[in-house]
Design goal:
By secondary structure, the protein is an alpha/beta fold. The protein has two domains: about 25-210, Spore Coat Polysaccharide Biosynthesis Protein SpsA, Chain A (Alpha-Beta Complex), CATH 3.90.550.10; about 225-405, no CATH class. Helices cover about 45% and strands about 10% of the residues. The chain is built from eleven helices and eleven strands. It has helices spanning about 50-60, 75-85, 100-115, 135-145, 180-185, 195-200, 225-245, 250-260, 265-295, 300-335, 375-405; strands at about 25-30, 45, 50, 65-70, 90-95, 120-125, 160-165, 175-180, 205-210, 340-345, 360. Strands 5-4-1-6-8-7-9 form a seven-stranded mixed β-sheet, sandwiched between helices. The protein has a two-stranded antiparallel sheet with strand order 2-3. A two-stranded antiparallel ribbon has the order 10-11. The longest helix has about 35 residues, at about 265-295. It is elongated, with a radius of gyration of 31 Å. It starts with about 25 loop residues before the first strand and ends with a helix. The relative contact order is 0.09.
Amino acid sequence: MSEQPPSRQPPGEQPPETTPALRLGVVVLAAGAGRRFGGAKLVARLEGRPVLQHVLDAVVAFGPAATIVVLSPSSAATDALEAATIWRDETRTRNLAPERGLSSSVQTGLAVARAAAPALDGVFMVLGDQPRLSPTVLRALAAAAAHDPGSSSADRPSVSIIVPRYAEGGGANPALLLRAAWPLVDELSGDTGMARLIRDRPDLVRELPVTSTRQTSWPLSRYADDMTALLLFLHITAAIIAFGPSYTIPLTARMAAQEPEHRNFLARMNLMISTRITLPLGISMGITGVLLIMVAHIPVTLWLQVAIVLYLGLLAYSYFVQIPLSRRILAEMSKPRGPLPAVGSATAAAGSPSASAPAMAGAGSPSAAAPAGPPPEVAAMIRRNKLGGQMMGVVTLVIVALMVWKPTL
């Protein structure tokens, strides 16, 4: 390992807002090559600053007793990262065996921290590619450790690792390792870092609920942001095109009531919109939604699970019930029955909040008497069709509400 002294001090630096009761250090793991990103991940600029700079700024705001930054062996990429970063009093060290995975950086950083500040009570393990790291989360974990520094009982061994639990889900980062957990770091191997230790030793781990935004690595791919934007564009555009025409149905239904000779055309048009636009684009929204979850790492929380189940139920009801019923109504109304009734909407557009079934109108042409209503069996199908459309509209509004408000269920 080789250590380097601090260099530049940024202008206008604010002092830390609070000092933790325990002496805590921070190890920033920044030795990864970022291969999935395409290289140079930590030097990539986000909101005008390198990704690593966001992390270091959050650490400075927290105010640790010591900060260790573990970098990869000397290379052009490492030199570029150091040149692009504003350093304060961080101690920089090198992981001389990065091929051993993230665990080697954890071990390297902890060894340097213990040597640099022997009186530390604990060390945070922070990932260098999580620019949304919050000083508030660090303070909350530090306060939890200060109030309960490794208490134990007969049925609860000493807690020596404290991690956040985010309401939105996500990884347990950053992790606070109290001194009692340090010997376990020597047993780590591979590229999982602290994850395996946290998983295998739940008796040593305390999860602290926090309200801050979950921490995720930024991003897995250099093009992840562009792909997320494209998928979101396709997702929203499909929703507008699929369900937009449905809101015109009440207007066209009133027009058909006044001009009953056009009611079959309206019925065919609504059925075509349902089968060729609404349903196919509704299916495509499911595909783009799944891809958004994968690319943007959206946690599948309970509210999202409920929305997905409602969405699948909506598609199934539309395909197996509503559209076949609309076809039957159109076939019955197309049969010659003498004077034909005027109708409003022949079908309920699948998934439409305002979808309605064929409805009879009370007026015919100016020179004709008011036609009789549809046969009783057709009228019953119309009522079922209309009720189904209204039910689907309510479900659609529930899904939209879940997507907008994201309630904690």
